[in-house]
Amino acid sequence: MKHKGLKLAIAMCAMLFCVAAELQAQDAPKKPQPKYFVFGSDSPERGTTRVGYWSSEKNMGAGQLAIDYGRPVWKKDYEDTAKFDAMTKGKVYRLGSNFWTTLDTDMPLVIAGKTIPAGSWYLGLHRSTDGATWSLVFIDPAKARAAHVDASEIERAPIAFKAPMTADPGAEMKEKLTIDLVFKKGDFQNVTLKIGWGKIQLSAPVQVPMS
């Protein structure tokens, strides 16, 4: 009986100690959260695709367009249709990784019928609510900078233009994001923009209005 009483007393003391510690923790001032968190990258792999024009008459550059982008790896989880649809349907979707995927052009372009002024543009993708169509999204870097929008927050960025893209389900699956500007020899005014990343295989015609 003495042992049982001793055990009961020890248990009661332990319980009272826990309650006192909990009350003390509640009364203690909470540590303030840091105002900012800092993050960086370790020089991740990036890709660049470019089309340049050279004037043989003037022997000087006549224009160029280039896309610079991070190359994320396709994940097996994205093969789950329900998960993939939840991530993309009806949303503006990040294109690339780390810093913004950027189109830089010193010529006006017509992409899938949409006129894009010369300049620098941040790029993203938009998928329709029903999941049937994709569009290339153009964001004004000045507006994104003014609001301190990170590329991971692309849905917070104001959209300047959208250009429809065509799905190419038969195209080769790419493990890493691959963006290409492709043209046929001798046809310098027509370029094809191709985006390949896992099950996402998209393309859009690009017209370069050169005389």
Mind explaining what this structure looks like?
- This protein is α+β, with helices and mostly antiparallel strands and 211 residues long.
- The protein has one domain.
- Helices cover 19% and strands 37% of the residues.
- The protein contains three helices and twelve strands.
- Strands 1, 2, 3, 4, 5, 6, 7, 8, 9, 10, 11 and 12 form a twelve-stranded antiparallel beta sheet that branches.
- The chain starts with a helix and ends with a strand.
- Mean pLDDT is 87; it is low at 6-20.
| Approximate helicity band | 10-25%
Structural category: alpha+beta
Total number of distinct structural domains? 1
Biggest β-sheet description: 12 strands, antiparallel
What separation lies between the terminal Cα atoms?
A: 105 Å
Following the backbone from N to C, one meets helices and strands in this order, namely HEEHEEEEEEHEEEE
Helical segment tally?
3
Low-confidence stretches: 6-20
- Average pLDDT level: 87
Rounded to an integer, what's the Rg over CA atoms? 27 Å
Characteristics:
single chain, 12 strands
Task: Give the gist of this structure.
The chain is an alpha+beta fold.
Indicate the topology.
Elements: H1 2-27, E1 46-55, E2 60-70, H2 81-88, E3 92-94, E4 101-105, E5 109-111, E6 114-116, E7 119-127, E8 134-139, H3 141-146, E9 161-167, E10 178-183, E11 190-197, E12 200-207
Antiparallel strand pairs: 1-2, 2-4, 3-7, 4-7, 5-6, 5-12, 7-8, 8-9, 9-12, 10-11, 11-12
